[in-house]
Amino acid sequence: MSDDSFIREVEEELRSDRLKKVWNQFGAFIIGAAILIVVGTAAWRGWEYYSERQASASGDRFLAALNLANEGKSDEALTALQALEDDGYGAYPVLARMRAATVLEEKGDAAGAVAAFDEVAADGSAPDAVRDMARIRAAYILVDTGTADQVAERAEPLSADTSPLRHAAREALGLAAWKDGRLGDAKVLFQQIVDDLNAPRNAKQRAAIMLDLIKSSGEVQEG
Description:
- By secondary structure, this protein is mainly α.
- The protein contains 9 helices and no strands.
- It has helices at 3-70, 74-87, 92-106, 110-121, 128-145, 148-155, 166-179, 183-195, 201-217.
- α1 (3-70) packs antiparallel against α2 (74-87), α5 runs antiparallel to α6 and α6 (148-155) runs antiparallel to α7 (166-179).
- The longest helix is centred in the N-terminal third of the chain and has 68 residues, at 3-70.
- The radius of gyration is 32 Å and the shape is elongated.
């Protein structure tokens, strides 16, 4: 046997002895860690599957409720949406609350719709974007059924230049001011929408129409 072969055999024996010692000392921990990894992975996959199933089921229920509302079956739609609010999964409970408020509005229950939207707006657990949209929806209803102060309470905080909903907020405020006879205030708000490069085209068109109405009234001077 050559010296090289002998040295390799010795090294292999030493490695084998070291591995045995490591295994004897830490084998149980290694097995335990491996089991934890396998169990953790299985649990995560199981949770993903459960979440997908629950979300899919809630989505189907939400779609069914929307179909009921679209068919004019308001009471049945409200019952289905209430059930989804109670035990729906993920974002569907808050979406159900928003749609239920819309159904109340469509039924002619303006006060009930405003109260429902206000509840969503006050719910700290709901996403901020949904809460802000609820404020805007309530403000639009109050343009016709409430006072300018009630509209301002909900829409004014969202009318700042940095707000994504500023165009809708300014439109609601402008309509409330126009209805209240404050044509100068209304003109400023509608002009802000027209001048905003990022305003949606439909919002600009409606604002331009309102500016034409205000101008034709002759009650506000140009300038």
